[in-house]
Design goal:
With 452 residues, this protein is mostly helical. It is 55% helix and 3% strand. It is a multi-pass membrane protein.
Length: 452
Amino acid sequence: MGTLVGHVAPGLGFLLIGLWHLFNHIKLHVLHPNSYIAPPWFPTLKPTKYNELILIMIGSMASVAMELFIGPERHQPLDHDGTIPTNHLHNFEHSFISLTFFAYSLLSILLDRAEIPNKTVTQHGMTQLMGAVAFAQQLLLFHLHSADHMGPEGQYHLLLQLVILVSLVTSLMGIGLPKSFLVSFVRSLSILFQGVWLMVMGFMLWTPSLISKGCFMHYEEGHHVVRCSGEESLHRAKSLVNLQFSWFFIAIAIFGVSLYLVLAKVYGQKVEYFSLGFNEEDKDEDLESQKKNQLEIRKSKSFVEMGKLVKVGGDADDADKAVTAVPSADVNPSEDVGGSDKNVKDVEKPKGDESRLKGDDFFDGLSQLVIDDDQVVLAGLEAVAKINVPAPNPDVVGEKSDAIHTDEETEDTVSDTPLLDKRKRAPALKSPFVDFGSADVGSTPMELMSSD
């Protein structure tokens, strides 16, 4: 990593990952502001959904190969006796950072493919944790770097550690705040800033024409480092590094907000909306419940239409009474079976004088229905009185009367008690209107009613 390529190549990788995350987080939040959940990585369609993680793994392995096998002169990092030489310590440190990011990518794929309980929450939290571990490893090794970072190179690494710290903190915050867009936005910008700053370091430290005035490149311990001729030149070089960092810091912030505004304008027409107090999962249940309610209402309507319309509430004297009767063959259908208007009222009433009972109210109405027994009996007798009975033939009646008196000689009268006799006669009828017990057995119904 102690070369121009060693800084620009990994810096380009961080830059691309940061841009990819920043673009997708903004787009996802603009399209779904109400249901936004920040994913730790973004799947793709072709050739596989793990393209982002696979590219991180490839870049990490390439970095390890460069540090341990391609960069050294003998293409291996160990000394003749199998120990690690002093000039290769920084190569191992850089390779361990790359190995940590490789582990993050590999474990992210395994967590996505594994069958684990509560997979969405667990996978998100553990993946973010592995990302935080990678940034923690990067921060630790850069802070405890074995190389001498006392000159301008040390100032670049010091400011880089601040950006890595932001990535670490936001990754840890993302575990507990998966729905926070600002946490994901800042983390994406910090990854982007890491890439930009690594590339700036590569060009400013290993391009002779860009080195600060009073400083020069010096070959030490197997690689080139920037040294300054005096304290004043060193102070000036560090101040220029701070100014560069401030300029890129402002530029990255402006870029992030500008990109958000552009994407909000492009994808803002496709914002999702939700009804208040209404969830997508409840739509099917509400539709099914509405169908059930409509079916119950139809059943109650058909049941009420087959019965009576009853006025619920009020006094018993003011309640409407209705009697349902079916005309027989001997009844004149054109006449009202219900009797006179004084005793029975028509079922049909003007609107407002009746209430159609539905559902549970129907059974409540039945419990409030008051039926007058005397009026029902009176209405029945009046209906019987209207039956057209042909006049009896005197000759036939005489013959039948003689036969009856012959068979019933042992009995003079009909018992007034409601008990059955030994021949199982019908019980004597009692009524407040007709005295059946005192009437002649041979009397006709018309004679019985006229005798009242």
